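[job 0417] fold request received: NADH dehydrogenase subunit 4L
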Amino acid sequence: MNIFYLMFFFMIIIMMCVLYMYKHMIFFLMLMEFVMLINLCILSLMLDMLGINIYLLMYYMVLVVCEAVLGLMLMVLLMRMCGIEYMKYINLKMW
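[job 0417] inference complete; emitting structure tokens
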């Protein structure tokens, strides 16, 4: 059970880093993927302990891949429209 608390602590630290240092959008996307990997580890440990079917992990991994592709697609679209990917200078109200 201590591993769950440790992973939760790392997730909180990562989210604080995102809120503190959000200069580039690619950095934000990488941190989101790291959070998803931590959630995948927690889910796999819980499924192993409970003895539930592992195919739920495949569904979660497909969701993570789709989320990553959508994030990269939005970043490329933003780069083509604005020419900059700094998050401090982006006004999302123009969309």
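[job 0417] notes: The two ends are 44 Å apart (CA to CA). The first helix runs from residue 2 to 20.
[job 0417] exit 0
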